[in-house]
Structures are given as structure tokens and as C-alpha cells.
Fold this protein.
Amino acid sequence: MQLTRKHEEYWRKNLRITSILLAIWFFVTFVIGYFARDLSFNFFGWPFSFWVGAQGALIVYVAIIWYYARYMNRLDQEHDVAEEE
């Protein structure tokens, strides 16, 4: 099946946003997580590295999911492939 120009644009935008969000996920999970142990000060009685690993990363993950869902809904409507409610 040959993709039309509109389909190619849709998939290009989809792959671009997916790549960007995966790069953010990788950075938060591995880069910040790796260097968080060097953050040696207390935050509400716990080491700050604990808060970065336990709370900060989860907040970023939820934000990534929220943004991806919002972006894809708009992209689907823009390209007339949105699900009907």
C-alpha cells in the first residue's frame, strides 16, 4: 500500500514526538538518576536523591504520558483520523 503525502506527514510528526519524548524519558531515567546520588543534601528529612528518584521521575513520566495523549489527539483531529466519541 502506497502512503499518501498526508499519511507520511502524520507518521513523520508521530515519530518525531515519540523520539523527543523517549529522549526525555532516557535523560530522566538514566542521566539524572545516575547523578542524583551526588545531590547530598536533605529535603524534608530525606536525601534529595531519594526525592529525585522516587517522586521527580514519576512526575515527569506522568507529564510525558499526558503530553503525548494530548498531542496525538490534536494530530489525529488535524489529519482526520480521530476516533469518534
User: Anything to note?
Assistant: The first strand starts at residue 42 and ends at 43.
